[in-house]
Structure of Zn(2)-C6 fungal-type domain-containing protein:
Amino acid sequence: MNGLPLNGSTQSSSFTPGQPTAAPKKGRTRQSGTAWTRSGCITCKKRRKACDKTKPSCNNCLKQGRTCEGYGSIWVEPLGPSAQVFSQMETSKRRRLSASSQSQFPSPAPSPPSDAWLEPRLSPAPETSLGWSVSSSPREYIPSEAVIIPVQDVEEYRPGPEIDFHSSVAVIPQPQGYISHLSTHESHYLQYHMEQGSRLLANLESHDNPLRSMLIPRAMSSPLLMKAVCAVSALHLANRSQGSGAHTAAVKYYSGTLNGLRTALEKCSTEVFPDDAMLAVGLLCKYEIVRGSVKQWVVHLNALQRLIVSRGGFASMDRDAAEFLRGLFVYAYHMARICNRNCIIPTDISVDSDIGIPKLDIYIGYTEEILKLCARIAELPSLQADTLALQLSVASMFVSLRFYNKIIQSNLRINILSRNESLLAWSHTSTPYIIPQGTSPATLTRLQLVAECFRDAGFVYLHSIMERISRNHPDTSPTASSGTIVNTQMEENPFPSAQDWAPLISTPKNVAVYRCLGRIETFPLGDHCEYSALTFPLFISGCESDDVADREVVLRSLGKLQDNFGIGNVKRAKELLGILWARQDANFEARFVGMGQQKNVHWLDIVEELGWELILA
């Protein structure tokens, strides 16, 4: 990847995706002087000036009082979190095109062949042996609010001295050049991804952030992966800038990625499904999470699982790609199980031994064991379903249930104690990890604090699931009816009451909520990307607390995460909390005035009523 040439033409100092650059004046000739060549320092190449190639800094730049940017390539070394990829030098002003001459984004200026996907082919996709096929129309993967609507071009950002980096409006350096084989739009969104998106879309920042060091070099040689990267980048920019042009571009790149995956699936009957296509599917999962989807992410996550299995697991992939996909899959899969146990295919993937000791991942950090434990807690209601089936079968044979009820009570008690002990015994040092290059001690400390919040959230979640089980268990008291023989021994309820199971959990729910929110209140949520992982602890604390002050902390903190990191599922969490609190308050008022004994609604009941497949990754 060394020495990728920058295009020689000077770019406009203000660039938006829907505004093609002005065409050069015809008949213009180069000024006399030393012949310009493509070799030399980056500064001279940008200025189209001859370079004397003196190292480490060119003398021509020094004589003119310019800063020489050296001879390296921006792709050689992984970029730091604040790397200035494109310099901010002054450029000559160009005549602005009139409004009548501007074109809308669906018809951009001529671009390299990599943009040919903008005319999506809608041919039907054959079923594959993987059980997953791309629909015949990309629109079926795009909800109604995301359908492409022609829009007038807008300037999505015009950075000025008064704009703060931490404001809710996204700001990136103005482009000064683009890689020769990329379209201007691809260069634009790739630049945003390098400078901001890659840092804000991870829960761990380091010099070795794979969203830059791994994805970008691969995308440079894979049009399919480039479309997927640009789709996520454009959508994230749209979330943070409210730019309709970026939103339209995101939908276009998303559709193009689906078309590319369709082609890859057609070939996989005779060829191995390539790593770049696997990464593209993973980025589609990420796209839907960034968008705040409550449906489409399930299709992509289940597809990713089948594709990994079809490849023979992570061990069959390139190490860097395998580590990235493993972290993404483990994070999304277990977060999905917490809220959507029935919509996710049980995993057949070995994520623990395929690639040896894993790196400290940019998504899961130190929380992997807690996430897996919460997914196990989510399985507790399955004991209830098994018990109902057992009751029906045994009652039909007029056999006493007393013995079976004792077994079920004992089994549930053992499961509660097991999960509680696992939460107590957890430590961030329990699992060995390879620390990524450039990870500071302060970053590791923040990851530990986030993981402690997840442990508190685990206790809250355990209380929440057990309360729902107790609330929803059937009334097994004997009721007589004509012609019915009642088994009087069914009156013994196999499910313990709250008084029975609550003492089995070492940390009371109110203590866990208080501890979790007390920590989060002290965090500077907008300063470090590690805190972007706190959506689940905040959400479950908000669901399980009736205290007005707690609700204010939750909403304020979620608002900061939404503004600073631009992840759409945070907005969905806030929406669901609003519905839940309104229902709970209405039930409380009804009970207060004596209008009934309504049960306090559970947040999972709201998820089911809405038909959402919520994911809090």
User: Anything to note?
Assistant: Residues 441-472 form the longest helix (32 residues). Residues 523-617 form one domain. The mean pLDDT is 72.
